[in-house]
């Protein structure tokens, strides 16, 4: 891409809906440099030494939280962690009061995860800091989609015309929305596949096509990304599909699929439910790049932290 006239002007990362294709390419190019740093014997670059960052996590997280924290520490930032479970949120303090109090401690960036869509947008109106969305309900999870696209680009350097299938609980996933939005901007084709009861209409308005047939989907795609059934977001009972066993039978990726369709690679944002979204052997096979996604997650988060802190691109 010719970036002569391009300037990265984003102040926050609330969702990929707000980022142009150029912005996405720019972040992914920066992430390449940090991915190389992570492979060094001493994987540190003290580029955020004078920055203070709060990780504001109102919802459970393992990978995303550790990944952000590691990215921040690799860059020498001062980091404070807030978990709703052990804080005054339990004593009835509102989100606005919590963030205002934290803000008076002079922070530069907030990484936010919350079960309600729109919380990161709300935070931009409460504090004078760069806000990064680490997942807001079933809305967006932009750093996950960025690391997914980074991982896809390691194999298919240009995603234009590449065929990406996203399989699973489409209705309750924030990963799917951010991925469709980002992948369409980079020119990929997207098919979503899953049970009818977990298939929202909005996916078509974002430019994805719908399939209810796993075999046809896997025969078509270059990349198959499986998503977890988001039990914690399924309200009103579990009558959306008969059982996890039947779900696996109908929509799970199996070793027999890998043999039958030798070209697609397997991704998953984690956490995996082995034996549900895919057979355990599939997750451990050489067609899966799931652990690479995790390593790339640190590099992509370093890139976004660095660029939103005002850094200009390093190579
Ligand atoms: C995803 C999430 O939390 O949205 N996981 C993640 O961030 N790695 C997907 C999930 O919870 O299934």
TrEMBL record:
Binding positions for carbamoyl phosphate per the UniProt entry: 63-64, 113, 141, 144, 270-271
The keyword Transferase appears for this protein: yes
UniProt pathway annotation: Pyrimidine metabolism; UMP biosynthesis via de novo pathway; (S)-dihydroorotate from bicarbonate: step 2/3
Molecular function terms, GO-annotated: amino acid binding; aspartate carbamoyltransferase activity
InterPro entries, per database record: Asp/Orn_carbamoyltranf_P-bd (IPR006132), Asp/Orn_carbamoylTrfase (IPR006130), Asp/Orn_carbamoylTrfase_sf (IPR036901), Asp_carbamoyltransf (IPR002082), Asp_carbamoyltransf_Asp/Orn-bd (IPR006131)
All copies of domain Aspartate/ornithine carbamoyltransferase Asp/Orn-binding, residue ranges: 160-308
UniProt EC number: 2.1.3.2
Gene Ontology CC terms, in alphabetical order: cytosol
GO terms classed as biological process: 'de novo' pyrimidine nucleobase biosynthetic process; 'de novo' UMP biosynthetic process; amino acid metabolic process
Binding-site residues for L-aspartate, renumbered to this chain: 91, 174, 228
Keywords associated with the record: Pyrimidine biosynthesis, Transferase
Domain Aspartate/ornithine carbamoyltransferase carbamoyl-P binding positions: 11-154
Catalytic activity reported: carbamoyl phosphate + L-aspartate = N-carbamoyl-L-aspartate + phosphate + H(+)
Complex formation: Heterododecamer (2C3:3R2) of six catalytic PyrB chains organized as two trimers (C3), and six regulatory PyrI chains organized as three dimers (R2).
Family of the protein in this entry: Belongs to the aspartate/ornithine carbamoyltransferase superfamily. ATCase family.
Function recorded in the entry: Catalyzes the condensation of carbamoyl phosphate and aspartate to form carbamoyl aspartate and inorganic phosphate, the committed step in the de novo pyrimidine nucleotide biosynthesis pathway.
Name of this chain's protein: Aspartate carbamoyltransferase
Organism field: Rhodohalobacter barkolensis
Protein encoded by which gene: pyrB
